[in-house]
Every structure is written in C-alpha cells, then in structure tokens.
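Our consortium's second objective concerns turning raw sequence data into structural hypotheses that experimental partners can test. To show how far this objective has progressed, the report includes one record in full. It was chosen at random from the queue rather than selected for favorable results. The single chain below, 146 residues long, was entered without modification.
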Amino acid sequence: MHNEDKRAASQRAVNVLLTSPFDEDHLQLRTIFRHSNWHPHGARTRAEALEFLQETSAPVVICECELQDGTWKDMLSQLVLLQRPPLLVVTSRFADERLWSEVLNLGAYNVLAKPLNGKEVFHVVSLASLLWNRQWEQPRELALTA
C-alpha cells in the first residue's frame, strides 16, 4: 500500500456500534467521537444491533450489560456467527472484577465502567479496532498480494 493510500485509509470513517437502551450513553458516545474518524451508530436492542450488522461492518460493538431482549452474553453468542465478527466491549454501572473476568473468559474484548470516561472509551475502542483489523484486514491484503 502506498503512503497516500495508507493516509486515506486511516482517515476513513470507522463504524462503532453502541447497543444501549439509555439515551445518555448514545449522547456520550457521539460526544466522545465527535472530533475523530469514528462514526458512532446506535441501537437500543440486541435485535436492532444485529440488523444493523447484517448491513454494515463495524469492528467494535459496545453493549450495555443488560438489554431489553437479552444480555451481553446473548449478543456475544450471535456476534460470533457473523462472517467477520466485531469485538464486543461490555458497559455496566456495576463493572467489577467478576464481570471483567467473565467478559474476558467468555471471549468478549473488554469492560467499560459507566459513566463512560472519554479517554478510556477512545483507548479501548481504538485498540479493539486495531486488533480486529489485524484479524480481518491483513489476511485479505496478503491474499491480494499473493
């Protein structure tokens, strides 16, 4: 990839999906990413999130611990069925060691405590996206050059 192509790719909008029934979470995420190349999308339920992901690729899904139509575990079990599954970050007002351990042991990426801290959200989502890109984009680039 040429330098100009790399620069253009790094400036492209990157989708992140927030699944939360709480208006304040959606507002916070839009505020956190307003001056970045992240393009936040919102869903209120697991069903809405999965419908969005059928149409649009997002490397990271941020999901409230408890949703109207399930939990973060239900979300994770459905994300892994997607062709290029996004990494899951769980949010909770009650983020503790038990939740963090369970999230990591079951295969989600990380936990964010609420209220959301802008720097922490940006850091976690950026690292998750880099990992996702390594998993899904590099193999495709290698196949194209082979």
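The partners drew two points from this record. The chain is about 50% helix and 20% strand. The longest helix spans residues 118-145. Both points have been shared with the crystallography group to help prioritize constructs.
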